[in-house]
Each structure stands twice: as C-alpha cells, then as structure tokens.
Design brief:
This protein is of the alpha/beta class and 303 residues long. It contains ten helices and twelve strands. Strands 5-4-6-7-1-12-11-9 form an eight-stranded mixed beta sheet. About 13% of the residues have low confidence.
Length: 303
C-alpha cells in the first residue's frame, strides 16, 4: 500500500503540473498577400489561401475571443489582402477585424493599454515584411513584436490563434518566432541556385487544414521567401516547395507550418515561459478525490 500511496501522490503532482493546450497556429514562408486578388467578393489564389487559413484557425480558437487583429498591415497591398481575406470569408458577421499600424497602438496591444489588445484578440495576424510587399510590417513594428515572445507564448497557451507570413527578408528577422521555437531554423529564398518557385504542394495535413485549396492556388501564392527546417515543435508541414540543392536536385522543404488547438509550441521548454496549470479551485477537488482513493484502498487492504 505504500507503493499505492506513492503512485497516487505522483499522479497528483503530475496533474498540478499539466500543460495547457496551445491555440491554433499557421506560420507561412509565403508572401501570399502580395500574390492574390479578389473577383467581386471571391478571393483568388494567395488571398484565398489567407481566407482559408483564417477560417481554419477561427474554428479552433478556444480563448473565447472573436476578433482578428493585424499587426502592421500598413496599407495598399498588405492592407487590401487582409481586408479581403477576412471580410469576404465565412467569418463576417461573427468576427470583428482590426488593423493596428502605429507603434503606440502595437505597444498598447501588448501591454494591455490599448482598446484592442492581446487580452481581447482571438487571432493575431502579421503580414509579409515591407521589403517584399507594399504596406507590409515594418522593421520598427517587427522589432516591437520580437520583444514579445513570452507574451505570444502565454497568449497561445491560453487558446489564442496566430497566423503570420514571411518575415525572413528583414533586417530584424523572426526574433519572436525563434523565441517560441528555439530549435526552428528559418531558411530563406528557396535555399539554392534555382529561382523556380512555381510549384507548391499541399500535404495531407494541408488538405485537411485548407479544404478546397488546390496546389495551383497555393503555387499562385508564390514566390515564397522562407522555408523551415530543424525542430518544428508540435507543428506539422502543411505545404511544401521544391528546395534546390547544389547538385541540381530538389527535396520537399517545409514552406507552411501549422498546428491546431492542442499543439504544444514550447511552454515549459528550457528558457521558455511555464505552461499553464489547472485552475486553482479545481486542484483541491482533485487532491481530495485522490486522498479519498488512498483512504478507501488502505481500509480495504489493511494499510
């Protein structure tokens, strides 16, 4: 019975340290916002990919919020892509859409002082960097975001959604992303001598994430400017592209990564924010239940 008591004690400890599930995530190395358009209210190619990404994430957000917030859709192409992919989606009427462009508004978003802030966002979206699209997220804006790795991690752990596009071609870079996934390696611009980026391929996970999107739709969202290697954490490869090696061959590189609700990003990893634990008022109930089991078993079996 001593072993039983010890086992139940370990079980109680493990319950108090259990990790919360993360919210849905899509990390794209594409600049789909720069390679799409709309015909009337119908999104095409890159903007259709964005629409389906938003719809996929929205169905899995579990933090109770229903707003999509763009950080740095500064105008023209990036702003039009965000507006069309959200407003011409199935989310219109049930979700709200906001675009923060000033540095003060983005700072207020993260520190909670803004009317639109990380505490009331359901999905955070970041467009392609300004070096690759007119009106994309600027280096100054990206620098603010890069300092918020811990805040983004906590937001995801609470069930919020995240969708971002290519940020590798920036002097500032993907600092926020590598702080969430320290083992992730961001590769740039197709990784080889060829400039042929015409063919993207949906994986089985990608077909499930983006129903109705074709390889041709995805390929028309090219060229892409980043692909990923290393440790993806709990993320899956949703779209691949041919990465050219020095010998002239190709291999399928991960151009779009994603994970649904329940994906563990990096909470609890060395140097990362701690994972959430069960609500405090639920812990006594679990504890009393386990102690009751111990008491019953000890009476039944003698000790």
């Amino acid at each position: 019975m001593k072993n039983l008591s010890k086992l139940l004690g370990i079980l109680l400890l493990s319950l108090t340290a259990s990790a919360a599930t993360a919210g849905p995530v899509i990390i794209a190395g594409t600049d789909a916002d720069d390679h799409g358009f709309a015909t009337g209210t119908t999104n095409m190619t890159g903007w259709l990919f964005m629409q389906k990404a938003f719809e996929n994430i929205a169905g899995q957000v579990s933090n109770g919020r229903n707003s999509i917030v763009c950080l740095g859709c500064n105008g023209s192409q990036a702003g039009a892509a965000f507006d069309s992919s959200t407003q011409n989606s199935a989310l219109t009427g049930s979700w709200t859409f906001a675009n923060l462009t000033s540095l003060s508004d983005i700072s207020g978003f993260f520190d909670g002082t803004g009317a639109v802030n990380i505490g009331n966002a359901g999905i955070i979206y970041m467009p392609t960097v300004e070096s690759n699209i007119i009106g994309g997220i600027s280096d100054a804006q990206l620098a603010l975001v890069n300092a918020q790795g811990a805040a983004l991690n906590s937001y995801l752990a609470a069930g919020g959604g995240l969708f971002t596009q290519e940020q590798a071609n920036s002097a500032i870079g993907y600092g926020w992303l590598t702080s969430l996934l320290p083992g992730l390696i961001v590769q740039g611009d197709n990784g080889g001598p060829s400039t042929d980026t015409s063919q993207l391929t949906l994986t089985a996970a990608g077909n499930a994430a983006f129903p109705g999107l074709t390889n041709a739709d995805a390929s028309n969202a090219t060229p892409w400017h980043a692909w990923f290697s290393g440790n993806f954490g709990g993320l899956q490869t949703l779209i691949t592209g041919p990465i050219f090696n020095d010998a002239g061959g190709t291999f399928p590189g991960a151009v779009v990564l994603g994970g649904g609700a329940g994906t563990v990003i990096s909470c609890g990893s060395p140097g990362q924010p701690a994972c959430d634990v069960p609500e405090p008022d639920s812990l006594p109930l679990m504890g009393f239940g386990l102690l009751g089991m111990v008491y019953t078993m000890r009476r039944r079996f003698g000790k």
